[in-house]
Design goal:
heterodimer, A: alpha+beta, BirA Bifunctional Protein, domain 2, 2 domains, 7-stranded mixed β-sheet, two-stranded antiparallel sheet, 9 strands, rod-shaped, B: alpha+beta, 8-stranded mixed β-sheet, 6-stranded antiparallel β-sheet, 21 helices, 41 strands, 29% strand
Chain lengths: 366, 815
């Protein structure tokens, strides 16, 4: 690069221009601009560097004075840049933080929260309560046949008690397609209760048996606010050598307290099921009126929550057990009804569906 | 059964209040489901006689009446709008100050200028049922004294008792009175029968032949002449109405009355319509028909039992009589039938014909051998009393010999062990005696023997007697014993993992739904599946066309769930459901993993269904919405796997011939486990199917076979020591043919990286000039965890293996 000769006056003028302009040029410079300015002034081909290089071409007489001026300007520029850098480090951060202020009253960005279905949650709770009493879960199929669902439970064909369980029959293969659905010849039905799982449990497990059997059931039943043709039950079964009606009573009372609270009133009374003898109906004090009588309990003060009894000898036999050696109790209850009572849901139909306006009301709670 | 308390009191003294009686009966096994009190809301309603009825001076439809409510008193002037009133009638009068049902208070008021001193009452105003247009006419003669409080005429308590199917013996006033007597210690007063018989012999007018002894163990008949079959008396009609029966005529009402009193259904035939009084009990002939008294023509078959004359069926045994032999107002001679029929046959016939009646219900549950004759005599007495009939001498009865009582044996110790209460033979006898059981014997060895009363057909073995002992002891008095028992060995809970999946899915922001397992054929076809598939399990007697078959896949339910929310203007449902799918495969030799079955070729498999529609979160300031798409769905599925501890799934594209028909042809995939087995499907819903379900946007759905998923979850985690060395990150850039599935690239990376690789993540994709047409560049970020610090060489080796595999298998160009 060639260096254009400059007069001493011009050089002095150029230096003075740098000196007077530096503060203005630094004004408002951020870190990047400051670095660029530093290079523009002091870099290898920076403005001031180039001016200094011209010193050699100045008259020797003028040189000391201009040299001194050049050094002063250079120190001043360096100092100004350093000062600006310092300023940037503190003042700029503050300004940035001030600039970054947000509206702290604005809501958060939504995070999706899933809700669990109450029937399934109650199933889990029952399972946990009963687990503490030593019960384990045993499951069976929903498509059953007449023998498991009825006959094994001491309900022969044409027994009047069959009216307690209106049945949905599985169609004979091909009959529906042919336009004339008829019940399957092999007796296949949709289970009307979880009780057939009792037989399966007895045949699979050896006494002592202590199981609960939750699951979906089906009945030929018109749908209204308290009935559905699909619903969930939880069955309990205990079989050993000396479990008595008194044990059943104690168990149910404890269970009711665990589920509905310490002060729950209970009533243990005779019921009827072909597969238990003696049979039991079990009530709790009405959760709506507390026992004084209201529409929900038909003015009786009680609500029936489950049916139970001592396993009938014929049922034990069908389960492959000797009724002279073993005895025990069983109970069955509607999960849906317990769910309704627990959450004060007015209509059972809400439980079978996908409307998130319903499900979204359920949270983990305490 | 409806039990009017006043009627019940004929047979037993009841000192308990209705509420106490309700409680006592219920805890004894006769559950009282409701107590109806009629008349409780009346006060100051009395019997009055209409003396005069004249037009209201200012209203065409109103009457002004003079009513006398007290012999020798002053008549009251009362305005009335009913059109059925006439002088001389006895009517209910609500006096000024009276109250009526519904908290209605009667005051002296001016009606169109005439002061009305009370109100004449209609059945509806008294809550007696019936229409409101007419006044309740109580009589036209001297039936009731003037001023009688109406409550003493119509007021009663009616108990609604839920008699269980095994207690047919309690389906009567006397049966329930027996229970009340046993529980209160009161005396049971069965109606005593005294009959005045004529010299006519019943056997001269009636003959009975029983072809089916098994189906008709006992048949009795009586014969009546000089019958005058007008209406039955008011008291009988009122009792029948209170018990839920409709009064018909004197003879029919008596049969219904005795059925309610003693539990014995009976039937009356017009004897002049039965040639020679010849009655045959036989099976119906195939092709035979009968017009029943409801004037329906019934086609009969050989499974049905009929009452016939010499040539034709004249009644459906135990269910309903025939129209041609029905008693009418003109009937003068009557044959009365009182019999026991085979319960299951009656039940079957009634069901087949859709003709359940009060009679059939009682026959189904069984009638004791000793009731028919007693009931026939009781009815004969009443018919004679109220219709002035002559009763022929004797009764036709096929089996008059008394039967021995059934004896049931048991052991005291065994009974104690079953019930958990202390017992001895003496105590057992004491408890059972009020229920008419007799302790026949109790020996030293601790055996008891009881004779069962004939009406208790349900008590056949020791456990049945034990229940009676428990009832008599009182269920409430059985001491509840705190849970104690031999605990069974530990078993894993088969539902535990399902419940964990629920919580994980909810934690990932999805809401749980529970929907019907029974769906409509249209639900399947709308989802792209064939509802005629022979592998589907169907119901023979569906409740409606909407619930005909058990879902073979969860997809219709998932899409229906989305649609249900869209209809409710919720356009972003993200949901899951855990439910079974149901299948029929009679030829399948081995069931799928984890299938539940009762055999016969049908089985059930648990699935997790996931369906996402619309934005994950709504667009908000500073946070644009992110729509559900296949990538988001996969992310959720991968998160579920991670949370469960299952290995990250691989995906494969579904080739067209295997595609799930509800999925978009270019966006249908399968979940593949490390052994290469499919265990789920996922993808975007075909837009045509989405439209058919009314779904906007681009819904995505998945279904995962849960037993297969759970098989991937290790039984226990073995936690490796956390190495001191820092993880090392390396990036890998490769160029491939752009038809290469990226899943294959990642699979090869993972398969060749060795144990040190802890993460492989695709972070860049580039197509364009720099890599050339038909090529794609991918960048993968790899994170290695070396055992010891600075184990760079091992990592280089792993990278070389990866590069080698990619070059070899995919023709990759490494950059």
């Amino acid at each position: 690069m060639t260096i254009e000769p400059m007069t001493a006056g011009d050089l002095r003028l150029a230096l003075e221009r740098v000196r007077t302009s530096v503060h203005e040029r630094l004004e408002g410079a951020d870190t990047a601009k400051l670095e660029a300015l530093r290079l523009d002034l002091l870099g290898r081909s920076g403005e001031l560097t180039l001016l200094l290089r011209r010193l050699g071409a100045v008259d020797a007489a003028e040189r000391p004075a201009i040299g001194q001026l050049a050094n002063e300007v250079r120190r001043e520029v360096e100092a100004a840049i350093a000062e600006r850098a310092q300023e940037l480090q503190s003042g700029d951060l503050e300004r940035r933080l001030a600039r970054e202020r947000i509206d702290m009253t604005a809501p958060g960005v939504l995070v999706r929260v899933g809700h669990l279905h109450p029937t399934m949650t109650v199933e889990r709770e029952l399972r946990e309560i009963l687990h503490a009493f030593g019960f384990e879960v045993f499951e069976g199929p929903e498509i059953e046949d007449d023998w498991w669902n009825f006959e094994a439970l001491n309900i022969p064909p044409d027994h009047p008690a069959r009216d307690l369980w209106d049945t949905l029959y599985v169609a004979e293969p091909g009959s529906w397609e042919a336009g004339e659905p008829r019940p399957a010849e092999d007796g296949t039905i949709l289970r009307t209760h979880t009780s057939p799982v009792q037989i399966r449990a007895m045949r699979t497990l050896a006494p002592p048996i202590r199981v609960i059997m939750p699951g979906r059931c089906f009945r030929y039943e018109a749908v209204d606010a308290s009935h559905n043709f699909e619903f969930f039950q939880v069955e309990g079964l205990v079989v050993d050598r000396d479990t008595s009606l008194a044990d059943l009573k104690g168990m149910l009372e404890e269970f009711a307290r665990a589920l509905y609270g310490e002060g729950t009133k209970t009533r243990f009374r005779p019921g009827y099921y072909p597969f238990t003898e003696p049979s039991v109906a079990f009530d709790i004090g009405c959760l709506v009126c507390g026992g004084s009588g209201c529409a929900a309990c038909k003015r009786s003060g009680w609500m029936t929550i489950l049916g139970a009894g001592m396993v009938h000898p014929a049922v034990l036999r069908n389960g492959g057990l000797d009724p002279d050696e073993y005895q025990g109790y069983a109970w069955g209850m509607g999960l849906d009804r317990i769910t309704l009572l627990r959450y004060g849901i007015a209509d059972l139909r809400l439980l079978m569906g996908a409307d998130l306006r319903f499900v979204s009301q359920f949270s983990e709670g305490r | 059964m409806r039990v009017p308390l006043a009627w019940l009191r004929d047979y037993v003294d009841v000192e308990l209040s209705p509420a106490e009686l309700r409680e006592e009966l219920t805890v004894r096994g006769m559950e009282v489901t409701a107590v109806e009190v009629s008349g409780a809301e009346w006060s100051d309603v009395v019997v009055g006689r209409l003396l005069e009825v004249r037009r209201h001076p200012d209203a065409d439809t109103l009457w002004v009446t003079n009513v006398l409510t007290e012999e020798g008193g002053e008549p009251l002037e009362i305005v009335c709008g009913a059109q059925n009133i006439a002088p001389g009638q006895l009517v209910p009068v609500a006096l000024p100050g009276a109250t009526l049902p519904g908290d209605r208070r009667i005051t002296r008021t001016k009606i169109r200028g005439v002061v009305s001193n009370g109100m004449l009452c209609s059945p509806r105003e008294l809550d007696l049922g019936g229409d409101a247009d007419g006044i309740q006419i109580l009589g036209t003669n001297r039936e009731y004294a003037l001023g009688t409080d109406l409550r003493t005429i119509y007021g009663d308590v009616v108990l609604d008792v839920d008699v269980k199917p095994n207690r047919g013996d309690a389906l009567s006033m006397v049966g329930l009175a027996r229970e009340v007597a046993a529980l209160t210690g009161a005396v049971l007063r069965k109606p005593s029968v005294s009959l005045l018989e004529t010299d006519e012999q019943t056997s001269a007018h009636v003959s009975v032949t029983i072809d089916e002894q098994q189906l008709c163990p006992r048949f009795t008949a009586r014969w009546f002449s000089d019958v005058s079959n007008g209406p039955s008396p008011d008291w009988m009609q009122r009792r029948l109405v209170a018990a839920g029966m409709r009064p018909v005529s004197a003879v029919v009402d008596v049969t219904n009355y005795v059925m309610h009193e003693l539990g014995q259904p009976m039937h009356a035939y017009d004897a002049d319509t039965v040639p020679d009084g010849r009655i045959v009990v036989r099976r119906a002939r195939s092709g035979e028909a009968l017009e029943t008294i409801d004037h329906e023509r019934r086609a009969l078959d050989e499974g049905m039992l009929v009452i016939a004359d010499g040539s034709r069926a004249i009644g459906l045994a135990g269910i309903m009589g025939g129209a041609e032999t029905e008693v009418t107002a003109n009937t003068t001679r009557v044959i009365l039938e009182s019999a026991v029929f085979h319960g299951p046959t009656i039940r079957n016939t009634a069901r087949k014909l859709g003709l359940r009646s009060e009679a059939s219900m009682r026959h189904e549950k069984g009638i004791s051998w000793d009731v028919p004759r007693y009931a026939a005599d009781r009815a004969a007495q009443l018919i004679a009393e109220i219709s002035a009939a002559s009763v022929a001498r004797g009764i036709v009865d096929n089996d008059p010999a008394p039967k021995a009582r059934r004896v049931v044996r048991g052991e005291v110790a065994r009974t104690e062990r079953l019930l958990g209460i202390p017992l001895d033979a003496g105590r057992i006898g004491e408890l059972l005696r009020p229920l008419e059981f007799e302790l026949a014997e109790a020996d030293e060895s601790g055996t008891w023997e009881v004779a069962v009363p004939p009406h208790r057909l349900d008590v056949v073995e020791a456990a049945d007697v034990a229940e009676e002992i428990a009832r008599a002891h009182g269920y409430p008095l059985i001491p509840g014993r705190l849970p104690r028992a031999a605990l069974p060995p530990y078993r894993a809970d088969p539902s535990e993992l399902r419940h964990r999946v629920r919580r994980i899915m909810a934690g990932l922001g999805l809401s749980e739904v529970v929907t019907h397992a029974l769906i409509a054929p249209e639900d399947l076809s709308r989802t792209g599946y064939d509802p005629k598939d022979p592998g589907i399990v169907r119901v023979a007697n569906p409740l409606s066309e909407a619930h005909v078959l058990l879902r073979p896949v969860l997809y219709p339910s998932l899409l229906a769930s989305l649609a249900e929310n869209v209809r409710q203007r919720r356009l972003d449902p993200w949901i899951f459901e855990i439910g079974k799918t149901y299948h029929y495969a009679p030829d399948m030799r081995r069931l799928p993993l984890g299938a539940e079955t009762a055999g016969k070729g049908r089985f059930e498999v648990w699935h997790l269904g996931i369906a996402l529609l619309g934005a994950e979160t709504p667009a908000a300031v500073g946070s644009p919405s992110r729509e559900a798409d296949v990538a988001r769905l996969k992310g959720l599925i991968e998160a579920l796997h991670t949370a469960l501890g299952a290995p990250t799934p691989s995906y494969r594209a579904e080739p067209e011939e295997e595609r799930h028909p509800h999925l978009h042809p270019g966006r249908a995939g399968g979940l593949v486990d490390p052994d290469g087995h499919d265990y789920g499907s996922l993808g975007e819903v075909d837009p045509r199917i989405a439209e058919a379900w009314g779904l906007p946007y681009r819904p995505v759905v998945a279904a995962i076979n849960l037993p297969q998923l759970f098989a991937l979850v290790p039984d226990a985690f073995r936690v490796a020591a956390v190495p001191a060395a820092q993880p090392i990150d390396r990036d890998l850039a490769v160029v491939l043919d752009d038809t290469t599935p990226v899943g294959e690239l990642l699979r090869l990376v993972r398969a060749n990286a060795g144990a040190m690789l802890i993460e492989a993540r695709l972070f860049d994709e580039y197509r364009g000039a720099q890599v050339g047409a038909g090529r794609v560049s991918y960048a993968v970020s790899l994170r290695f965890q070396p055992e010891t610090a600075g184990d760079e060489r091992a990592i280089e080796k792993a990278l070389n293996r990866i590069r080698g595999a990619l070059t070899h298998h995919l023709g990759a160009e490494i950059r």
